[in-house]
Design goal:
Layout: H1 11-24, H2 34-56, H3 58-61, H4 64-93, H5 101-111, H6 115-119, H7 122-145, H8 151-170, E1 175-176, H9 180-187, E2 189-190, E3 193-194, H10 195-212, H11 215-225, H12 227-232, H13 237-263, E4 265-266, H14 274-284, H15 296-315, H16 320-338, H17 342-350
Antiparallel strand pairs: 1-4, 2-3
Length: about 350
């Protein structure tokens, strides 16, 4: 009795079919365009916020000079937290979290403004801030990568320790600095643009290159997608994790110099709740809490949206408690939106 056999599918034909199917899709319908779609949506949100501003405070948002001045203020306010968000984005893409960023900023600001450090000049102040941030990040990374601590616990412990150490060094007093170079970072401009904003743009650009054009960035994404698979592929997951937290700490050191320049002081209260703002901005920008997905451009837009919303609250004299309630709602909404794949939504809509 003979049996009929079904011819097996030719792999070449299958690959050709998959290729032709992908070719039949428009760019807008492909998964590879998801990041671009999210960024376009975020730009739309920014435009909407400006429209709301024009409706609620037309005296500011419909006057070109006052609008330009206001938006420069927004960019300046976004600069220090924006630098921190760049480091936070790398950590979150890898599947981690860093709750210590605000405390590290405070510690770096206090340490670089001690009398002993200031006596050595501005170069020593800059080096101290960067070194404190990087070393603290090294401790975080070491505890997580080699000590096998959960990132939440390790960075929470660092947050408490760093804030306490900053308070101990400063004696709970504000340390004033009058160094001309440090003050110039916030006071001087290049072609009408504050140095603070230029620093923010440079750090963001370097972060984009590091994430998108280097093996460091590809390894970060691979670890966030599947750490075990990344290890089996030959990636040194522990070393990569260590370096990611050093990068986050270094960004905290840069941000500390910016805050010291803005306030002309170092204080153990600097950076209060910065960790929540940084995480919120990264989430709004499309960085996944579970890791494996995120973009520097998206995080940049997330920072600008968060800061623009705060600016709208301020110019409309909204009470602080109401501001915090709304900010909390925004974070929840951003996380809920992340549960839906943008590409799948559009395919469902347009492929019927």
């Amino acid at each position: 009795m003979s049996t009929a056999t079904t011819p097996s599918a030719d792999p070449v034909e299958l690959s050709k079919g998959a290729a032709s199917s992908a070719a039949g899709q428009s760019w807008w319908q492909r998964d590879s365009a998801d990041s671009a779609k999210r960024n376009l949506a975020l730009i739309g949100v920014l435009v909407l916020l400006l429209v709301i501003g024009a409706w609620t405070r037309s005296d500011i948002f419909l006057d070109i000079d006052r609008l330009w001045s206001n938006e420069l203020t927004v960019l300046t306010q976004a600069s220090s937290i924006g630098v921190i968000v760049v480091g936070m984005t790398f950590v979150m893409i890898s599947g981690g979290i860093d709750l210590s960023v605000g405390a590290l900023l405070a510690l770096a600001s206090v340490w670089c403004t001690t009398v002993a450090t200031q006596d050595l000049g501005p170069a020593a102040m800059v080096f101290t801030a960067l070194a404190v941030g990087a070393i603290a990040g090294l401790v975080n990374g070491g505890l997580i990568a080699y000590g096998k601590l959960v990132p939440f616990i390790a960075t929470l412990a660092m947050m408490l320790s760093a804030r306490g150490l900053a308070q101990n060094i400063s004696g709970s007093h504000t340390q004033i600095t009058a160094d001309p170079f440090i003050k110039s970072l916030a006071g001087d401009r290049l072609f009408g643009v504050p140095y603070m904003v230029i620093i923010f743009v440079v750090v963001t650009a370097l972060g984009w290159v590091l994430l998108n054009r280097t093996t460091f960035g590809r390894r970060t994404i691979a670890i966030g997608g599947n750490a075990e698979a990344a290890r089996l592929a030959g990636i040194n997951v522990r070393l990569q994790t260590l370096l990611l937290y050093v990068l986050s700490g270094l960004c905290c050191g840069i941000a500390a110099l910016m805050v010291v320049s803005q306030t002309t002081s170092g204080s153990n209260t600097h950076g209060d709740l910065y960790e929540l703002s940084a995480i919120a901005a990264a989430i709004i920008g499309g960085t996944a809490l579970t890791g494996g997905r995120g973009t520097i451009v998206g995080s940049l837009l997330g920072v600008l949206i968060f800061t623009q919303i705060t600016n709208l609250f301020i110019v409309n004299n909204l009470q602080l408690d109401i501001q915090r309630i709304i900010n909390g709602g925004i974070i929840v909404a951003a996380v809920l939106i992340q549960q839906f794949r943008v590409g799948s939504f559009f395919r469902t809509r347009f492929n019927k």
